[in-house]
């Protein structure tokens, strides 16, 4: 969408069309009839964002906010019915040991 808009102007592709391409049309391209929509009987992974966050200010509508504004941390993430992130916090593992290990590895790389 962004490359199309860059090459041909903002009117060349609407954000709603880009979302449809990524969801409904993506599922159709894969030959899948069980994904691509949020509806009864469809499989779905759902990511929820707080659109009241300052980073989404001025987008005009929720879809434009999600597709055009700076990415923000997901508020809630559900994958195959399992809540993975809730209130912005990862629920599937303890993050502190991961961050600690990452910092050690980063320090080792920077000291070389």
Task: Write up this protein.
The chain is α+β, with helices and mostly antiparallel strands and 112 residues long. It contains five helices and four strands; from the N terminus they run αααβαβββα. The protein folds into two domains: 1-42, no CATH class; 45-112, Urease, subunit C, domain 1, CATH 2.30.40. It has a four-stranded antiparallel beta sheet, with no helix packed on it. It has helices at residues 2-8, 15-22, 24-29, 62-68, 95-110; strands at 46-48, 76-79, 82-86, 89-90. A hairpin with a 2-residue loop joins strand 2 and strand 3. The N and C termini lie far apart (41 Å). The chain is extended and about 50 Å long.
State the shape.
extended
Assembly level? single chain
Taken together, the total number of domains comes to 2
CATH superfamily of the largest domain: Urease, subunit C, domain 1
CATH topology of the largest domain: Urease, subunit C, domain 1
Largest sheet: 4 strands, antiparallel
Q: Hey, roughly how much beta strand do the residues contain?
A: 5-15%
Mean pLDDT: 92
Find the structural class using helix and strand composition: alpha+beta
Q: Order of strands across the biggest sheet?
A: 1-2-3-4
Number of DSSP strand runs: 4
CATH architecture group name of the largest domain: Roll
The value of Rg in angstroms is 18 Å
Give the N-to-C terminal Cα separation.
Answer: 41 Å
**Regarding CATH, which class of the largest domain?**
Mainly Beta
Instruction: Give the low-confidence spans.
Output: none
How do the helices and strands follow one another from N- to C-terminus? HHHEHEEEH
Q: What is the helix fraction of residues, given as a range?
A: 25-40%
Number of helices: 5
């Amino acid at each position: 969408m962004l490359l199309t808009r860059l090459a041909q102007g903002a009117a060349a592709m609407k954000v709603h069309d880009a979302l449809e391409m990524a969801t409904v049309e993506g599922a159709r391209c894969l030959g899948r009839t069980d994904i691509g929509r949020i509806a009864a009987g469809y499989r779905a992974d759902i990511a929820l964002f707080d659109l009241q966050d300052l980073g989404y200010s001025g987008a005009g509508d929720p879809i434009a906010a999600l597709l055009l504004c700076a990415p923000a941390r997901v508020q809630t993430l559900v994958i195959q019915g399992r809540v993975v992130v809730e209130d912005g916090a990862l629920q599937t593992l303890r993050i502190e040991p991961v961050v600690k290990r990452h910092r050690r590895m980063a320090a080792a790389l920077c000291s070389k």
